[in-house]
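Hello Y.,

Per our agreement to keep a running log of every chain we model this quarter, I'm adding this entry. I've kept the format consistent with earlier entries: sequence first, then predicted structure.
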Amino acid sequence: MSPSLVAIVMAAGKGTRMKSDLPKVLHEVAGEPLLGHVLLTLRQLETDAIYVIVGHGAEQVRAFLPENVTPVEQLEQLGTGHAVDQVTPFLDQYTGDVLILSGDVPLLTAETLRGMKQEHEAERAVLTMLSTTLNEPTGYGRIVRDETGRVTGVVEQKDATPAQKAITECNLGTYLASWPHLRDTLAKLTPNNAQGEYYLTDAIAHLVHGGHGVVSHCTSDALEGEGVNTRAQLAKLQGIYQQRTAEFWMAAGVTIVNPHSTIIGPKVSLGVDTILEPGTILLGETKVGERCVIGAYSQLRDVTCDDDVHILHSYLSQATVGRGSHVGPYAHLRQGAQLGKKVRLGNFVEVKKSVLKDGAKAAHLAYLGDAEVGCNVNIGCGVITVNYDGKKKSPTVIRDNAFVGSNSNLIAPVTIGEAGFVAAGSTITQDVPAGALAIGRGRQVTKEGWVAQREENALASSP
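Predicted structure for the entry above:
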């Protein structure tokens, strides 16, 4: 879209039918709040500013908003016209267009909004609304036209006559308008309707009566304008979003074995020939390279995977995985986990704020926290970096080519030198020099005949 465009997003409603303490616009589709989907769509357009009308749960909504979005509070929810009017003090000298849309329409696309803009300009309209035709229009405002087909207004479902309820062209609640004309019209709105609210749709009749052009941009995809009022609608849109997103990525060269059980967030990117197995969930700023395999029921959030990575049945969050690495099954990579190339993490290995360099491996049952693990290091089964003393966390450093035997505890802060060797079952409390063997375990004591003696003593002491 061209410059001189301001977006206003209505996000003040409580969403009573959601039966939730969470503001409606913060309920999620594919791991992203409904409002987040709308803001991501607006990010694809050229806007001078974005204002979000907040009301119910205002502090929660404010906390979600990025820095380049301005919240505007609607202290009383008195209707859509009243909501838009709250932005008036911020646009005192503004003479361009405003794009007005709801904060709960996750399927609305930038392409549709660009189409609205093109028609708005081609028709030299003062206001353009997004519409669609529905066989079952119950609940939607109907677009009323005169005998020449000119738009004369919008009537809401609760205020419609039987004849108006038979109209199938419906208003989807997204508008593009000349701000100076709309601003003047907002002052004329009255709450003379069944809801006792200031309807933004009433502005359309005022503009028409003033001789200004009002048109509708009709989309064949009614779902783009569908909002969320209930949990059932949320689930419905989640399913539709899921299918559309899967189709997009499959067309881009990604194999999705079962699209119905796979969730891909709107900020996710996927490389060619990557395979997503059933039950995978990819959320946040996750980036997956080419020829990767994300195994069944794995979940990645804000994770970056290089090419040729295999992840099986694992949970990763705020982590990076280098080219050719294998993770899982049942591995857990937490915030700050960084794997180099061809790293191998097996079942029940947890990594937090640790760097594992190229070729390092921990095949099973290990915890690596606040650690630096060098190239080609072997971490045995049951190894733990003991990084927390109850007050502070300390680092463990394991240099290149070191070997840490099974069931060893590395009490941080501690360093295992290059090619150092820690014997299995050791508790290491001091640094191990390069190339040295460290054994930190109690000496074995064997008592011959002890079991038989114990049984004899038991019999002797019995009554």
